[in-house]
Amino acid sequence: MRILFIACAAMGISFILLAQTTFQSSPTQSPALVGTATNGQTIIHSHQSEIFMKSNVYVWSEAGRVDNPQMQLKCELLTVEAPKLSLGKGKYNRATAETNVVIDWFDDKGTNHATADKAVYTYALTNLAEPPQEIWRTNAFVVLTGNAVVSNAMQGVYRADPIIWDRIRDVIYTTNFQEGVLYPNKTNNSGLFDTQMPNDKPAKK
Amino acid sequence: MHAAARLVNPCVPLLGLIAVFCLVLSLALAADPQAGNSIKGFRAPLQYCDPPHELQVKSYLEGSESEFLSNGLIGLKNAKLRTYNDDGSEAMVAMTPECIYDTHAQTVSSTGLLQVQTVDPESGTRIWHEGVGFFWVQTNSDLKISNQVSTIITGTPTNLFNP
After folding, report:
1. Contact assignment for A60 to B158 by CB distance below 8 Å
2. ipTM computed for the complex
3. What pTM did the predictor assign?
4. Please, what's the b/e burial string for A105-127 (b: 16 or more CB within 10 A of its CB; e: otherwise)?
């Protein structure tokens, strides 16, 4: 009888332990990545990234590549700063691409190509009036520095440092022009730097 | 001697043998450190917001299973790390099949897959991050993804590249 009791007790303990270990190791499904895709989505690839949640700063480093319906960008370091401003203070975003920057974008003038050591895109929405009045002004610039070159297959090559692109007025200008090459046979359409460059006119007979 | 042997039920030695086998097997399994300290359903608020929102949880860690390791380390499976804004809205949710929470250093890390979603409530812009290997520092809410990073940004940002 004693042997039978010991045997039953041992089996009971065994099953309790087995039950515990069995239940503990039951796996569950890992969560899947499900996103809402839109036509305007931007995809960024890089080796590493860092998110600073407090300051809302995103950093992608090593072999960065950005794909967007309007543009492609390659660089070694991409930093996006989007500080959270209080209501009524407007908006400020800045994206900085550094080291071996290559940008291709598309507009009504065709495909444009830019290279530089550094490219900074700044967007600022500022209230010029005293609250509660609101007079908003938007500034958006792309500034290329360090061996900056912009080219368009139809219009020419523009070398300067810096090259400043006012995105609101859609004007490219510089304070330090270095070299410009125009393709005279391809300038019937509006120029890449159309605020400075006159269009060809047909010769009068 | 023969009389005593006849009194013993012939099933008893067999039951005893089975019981001893089960006991040895169970002890061997119980001796496995990975199974011994595990519990299901880990949930813990890690950090609270600064005053005047001190009752608002700032970061929250949960997992389907947890395993208490040495030196204040906790292994988690199917973990979710959530961070919140001061108004209680969700700022970020990070998901990983497994990770280690260091209670002393207040960090969460893993060499495995990480999927992160952040939402900007003002613009509705959603940012999906995915990568392999990560390190999250609780004290300053910094997240570093080590390898194979992919990011997808969707929504309608107010400052499109073409104004």
Report:
1. no
2. 0.72
3. 0.72
4. beeeeeebebbbbbbbbbbebee
Taking a contact as any Cβ pair under 8 Å apart, which residues of chain A between 21 and 80 contact chain B?
21, 23-25, 27-31, 33, 35-38, 40-54, 58, 60, 68, 70-71
* A175 to chain B, closest Cα gap in Å: 23
Query: Which domain range does residue B92 map to?
Result: 39-154
Return the CATH number at A56. Answer: 2.60.450.10
Looking at the domain assignment, is residue A32 inside a domain? Answer: no
Q: What is the pLDDT of residues A137-195, one digit of tens each?
A: 899 999 999 999 999 888 889 999 999 999 898 888 999 998 888 876 665 544 455 44
CB contact under 8 A, B162 and A53: no
In a domain, A197, yes or no: no
Report the b/e string of A52-88 with b at 16+ CB within 10 A: bbeebbbbbbeebebebeebebbbbbbbbbbeeeeee
The string over B114-125, giving b where at least 16 C-beta atoms fall within 10 Å of a residue's C-beta and e elsewhere, is bbbbbbbeeeeb
